[in-house]
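Batch 3, record 17
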Amino acid sequence: MSTKEILKEFMLTPAPSGYESEMACKLKAHLEPLCEEVHLDRLGNVIAKVPGTNPALPRAMIFGHMDQLGFIVRRVESDGFIQVDRLGGIPEKVLPGLQLLLRSEDGKWHLGVFGNKAHHATPAEEKYKVDLVTSLFVDIGAKSADEVHALGIYPGCPVIYRPAFEELCGNRVTGTAVDNRGACACLVEIARLFQEAPPACDVYLVGTVWEEFNLRGAMMAARTVKPDLALSLDVTLAADTRDLSSKFEDVMGQGPCVGLYSFHGRGTLNGTLPHEPLFRLAKRTAKETNSPLQRFAALGILTDASYIQLEGEGVACLDMGFPARYTHTPVEVCDVGDIDALAALCAGMMRRIDENFPVGRF
Ligand SMILES: [Zn+2]
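Prediction for the assembled complex:
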């Protein structure tokens, strides 16, 4: 299967934070024929081992989160409408009028829509204001709370954008959960590339849970794998649209990115400053393999690398990714070529780890 076909399969798989099992099984099935051993840990992280040519070298973990953002049912009204709250960073501007899937307690998915006041009856002053997610309501066609409950839908049930995947021009695709199924597809491609030429060090390819919820699912995978160094794979914010072109530099279709600064202060207080030897390895590998390499640095963003770096005696971490547009909307866009190029760069880096590679920062 091509990366685009795998990405399509992954994007169409519903997996809100905490309910990643279907996605985990699919990732495991793709990795199994390519890796020495694949298992799921207690939280649902997928952990696959690819042995290196020299097991004495530092151990590496390359990981990307499998979960996606969504909503949680908060209250079922007596007239059958459903109120939700957010699970992850939801852009409230895009919500009214969207199709949704609601997961009932027996694990089945049910179609619903976010209602929007009839346009003909919307006064001018309401047309230009954004409603909070807590003031929206979900319509599944039910006429009463009993009808909703009969389907197994109660407070606590997760809700996601209706999964979508469509091809655009060239090698570009659009749909739901490009963040971060692009990285999951990348993990499969890395495993495939290791079949052609193995890594120098042992590499664990890991699909993680809970990133969009509390960023800490990956932490538990790191406690099993005990890596010395780690590459985190996630989207970066493509700056090639007119609304972001003066803010960042990364451009879709121009190859993989390294994340050189992430920080989130409000409540979370975490971030990642890159491990410089890993960054130098990324630059050297890109040069030697004629790969482009873009730089991305942003405030207000956090990845699960921030938590991995604090595990054990400390883990050398580098954020890596591929540019994506319209993040956290149901029409995220990416260029599949960037995902393939990211995989090639990561595989190349792992083939270049040697006994002189410093896992310390200095
Ligand atoms: Zn992400």
